[in-house]
Design a protein that fits this description.
Helix content is 48%, strand content 9%. With 108 residues, the protein is mainly alpha-helical. The chain has a domain of 66 residues. The chain has a two-stranded antiparallel sheet with strand order 1-2. The chain is rod-shaped and about 100 Å long.
């Protein structure tokens, strides 16, 4: 086929550079989404810790109302008030302070 021929048929297709640019953009958007997802996941875990502390404090207040005295340890709440002390999704622990009769969260 002669290149100078006016009837030369040009195929429509993407060039390699265009494909690489599109793949780079998709890769960057995916990386941004994964980073954002990890921040959202960590934030959710921290909110679960706050919720668990509130739950444990409410349970100790119910114990006080029903028994007339504050629990001596967090294990006093098991099994009549809670099944078990929740585990922290962030790896920390829930500490019961006998002097204040409050639970708090201790980071890992």
């Amino acid at each position: 086929m002669n290149i100078n021929n006016k009837h030369f048929i040009k195929k429509k297709a993407f060039t390699l550079i265009e494909l690489v640019v599109v793949l780079a953009i998709i890769s960057m958007l995916t990386a941004i989404a994964l980073i954002k997802f990890n921040f959202i996941l960590q934030d959710a875990k921290e909110k679960i810790d706050l919720s668990n502390v509130s739950y444990l404090n409410s349970t100790s207040r119910i114990y006080k109302i029903e028994s007339g005295d504050w629990p001596d340890a967090s294990t006093d709440l098991i099994p009549n008030y809670i099944k078990e002390i929740p585990t922290s999704p962030t790896g920390g622990s829930y500490i019961y302070d006998v002097s204040t009769n409050e639970f708090s969260y201790s980071a890992p």
